[in-house]
Amino acid sequence: MDRNEHEHVIEVTDLRRVYGGGFEAVRGITFHVKQGEIFALLGTNGAGKTSTVEVLEGLAAPSAGHVRVLGHDPFTERAAVRPRTGVMLQEGGFPSELTVSETTRMWAGCVSGARDPREALALVGLERRADVRVKQLSGGERRRLDLALALLGDPEVLFLDEPTTGLDAEGRRDTWDLVRALRDAGTTVLLTTHYLEEAEGLADRLAILHEGRIAVSGTPAEVTAAQPSRISFELPTGYFPGDLPPFAALGVCGHDVQGRVLRLHTRELQRTATELLLWARRSGLALHGLDARSASLEEAFLTIAREVSAPGEPAEPRKPEHAV
Ligand SMILES: Nc1ncnc2c1ncn2[C@@H]1O[C@H](COP(=O)(O)OP(=O)(O)OP(=O)(O)O)[C@@H](O)[C@H]1O
C-alpha cells in the first residue's frame, strides 16, 4: 500500500448548508477523516447527515465553509473526485425489470476501470441472485446490490448512507465484515447510520450531529466515556432518596426518580454499586429491580437527542467537544 496513512482524505471545515427558503440544515461543522479510517455520522432524524454527505459526494455545493475529498473540491472538481469514490445512496432507484446481473453490468459500463461485476456481487453475497429481477429482491438484498454497485470502481473513498437498513442480523454482520475488510485494505469509509451498535462496533471515530451541529465526536470509547453509568432500583416502601447515604459518599453525580424507581448517575460504577449494596445489607433491605449498566453510545445519543431546542432557538454546541 503506497498511500499515506495519515493523510486527511476527507476534510470538512465550517461547513454550512442552507436550503432555499433560508433553512440552515448544516450549521458550521468541522471534521476530518484519515486514510483507511471508518468514520460514522450519527444523529437524530433531520440532524443534517444526508445534507452533509451530499456535499461530500459532490451532489451539492456548500453554502459556506469548505470541503475536500482526496484533496479536491468534490463539487467544482467532480471529474477528479468521482472516479475515485464509491457512493451508496439511501435509495438506489434501479430499473426494476432488469436482473441483478444486467444492472451490475450496466453500471459497470459507466465506471472507468470497473472490477468484474461478478466479483462485486460475490463481495456482497449476491452471486446466486444474479438472474433474479431487481423487483423480486428483498429490501435487504437491494441494499446489498446498492453496495455492490458502489464497489464496482474499487473506490479509495466509500460513502455509505445507512448501508444496513433493512438487512437481517446476519446480513448486517456480513456487511460489517466487508466494510472492515475494505478499511483494512486501505479504503476510507464515511457512513451514516441509525444503528448505534453499528457505529460502536464498526467506526474508528464518529460524530453525533444534532440540529445541524456536531454535538460530540471522537472514538466510540471517548464518546461513551463522557457519559455517566447508571444504577436503578425500586425505592423500598417508606424510603426516599434522602434516606440513602449522602450521594457524594456514594460517588453519585446526579439522580432522577420515576414513580418509585430511583436512578443514580455515576462515573465510578464499581464504587457506587459497592457502597449502595453495603448500605442495603446494613439496612436489611432488598433492592428490587436492581440494574447497573455502564455508559454506552446509546446513552450519549439519548442525552443529546433529549436536548431539543425551543422553536426558533438555535441549538448550542455541547462542551467539551473532542477534537476530530
Ligand atoms: N431540499 C430540502 N429543502 C429544504 N429542507 C430540506 C431539504 N432537504 C432536507 N431538508 C431539511 O434539512 C434538515 C436535515 O435533513 P437531512 O436529510 O440532512 O437529515 P438527516 O440527518 O439525514 O435525517 P434522517 O436521519 O431523517 O435521514 C431536515 O430538517 C430536513 O427537513
Condensed summary:
It is built from 11 helices and 13 strands. With about 325 residues, the protein is of the alpha/beta class.
Explain the overall architecture:
Strand 11 and strand 12 form a beta hairpin. The chain is of the alpha/beta class. The chain has eleven helices and 13 strands. It starts with 7 loop residues before the first strand and ends in an 18-residue tail after the last helix. Strands 5-6-7-3-8-9 form a six-stranded mixed sheet, sandwiched between helices. A four-stranded antiparallel sheet has the order 11-12-10-13. It is elongated and about 75 Å long. The longest helix is centred in the middle third of the chain and has 16 residues. Helix 3 packs across helix 4 and helix 4 crosses helix 5. The N terminus and C terminus are likely disordered. Adenosine-5'-triphosphate (ATP) binds next to helix 1. InterPro entries: AAA+_ATPase (IPR003593), ABC_transporter-like_ATP-bd (IPR003439), ABC_transporter-like_CS (IPR017871), ABC_transporter_ATP-binding (IPR050763), P-loop_NTPase (IPR027417).
